[in-house]
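Section 5: illustrative case.
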């Protein structure tokens, strides 16, 4: 039977984050324990014997992110540096390692002139580049992209708009710098030459 226990719990709601799981490694003297936190198990217990009861516990964790059409980023996991504690409860907050940059779009295009609009979002920084496209229509007027990056990284965002006219032609805009937040997609200011479909 264990002589003492360390409770490890997530300090965020993993159901509302893009974090799939958190791996936590704990070392006390010569003993090592590993626990996993996820949306279904936000609390775990690591048990140690009394041989090393007087040693502080060193712990380190890595948060693994979901990746998919609505969450993009250059990294699939984020690792915290080792830490030492004498506490019996360890709270893990991976939000100290990463941040979300969110770009959303809402369509206000004329349904008689345009069938759909596409919003291409490009993110570049720290040797990484990724592009995600939101497709907006009259039945799906809103979309969003979340970019997950390390707190220490920088990222530049651009977007461009592409329209599908009621006749099936494509009107393509130029790339332009973008800030995180909302893009309101209205009718194109000029009827540029249609691009090849």
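Designed sequence:
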């Amino acid at each position: 039977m264990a002589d003492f226990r360390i409770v490890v719990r997530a300090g965020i709601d993993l159901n509302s984050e893009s974090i799939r799981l958190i791996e936590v490694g704990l070392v006390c003297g010569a003993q090592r324990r590993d626990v996993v936190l996820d949306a279904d198990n936000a609390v775990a217990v690591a048990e140690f014997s009394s041989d090393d009861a007087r040693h502080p516990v060193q712990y380190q964790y890595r948060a693994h992110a979901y990746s998919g059409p609505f969450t993009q980023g250059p990294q699939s996991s984020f690792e915290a540096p080792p830490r030492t504690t004498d506490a019996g409860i360890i709270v893990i907050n991976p939000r100290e390692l990463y941040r979300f940059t969110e770009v959303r779009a809402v369509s206000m295009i004329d349904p008689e002139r345009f069938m759909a609009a596409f919003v291409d979002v490009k993110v570049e920084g720290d040797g990484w580049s990724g592009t995600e496209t939101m497709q907006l229509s009259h039945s799906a007027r809103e979309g969003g992209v979340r970019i997950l990056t390390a707190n220490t990284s920088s990222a530049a965002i651009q977007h461009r708009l592409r329209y599908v006219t009621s006749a099936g032609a494509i009107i393509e805009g130029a790339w332009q710098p973008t800030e995180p937040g909302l893009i309101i997609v209205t009718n194109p200011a000029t009827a540029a030459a249609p691009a090849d479909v």
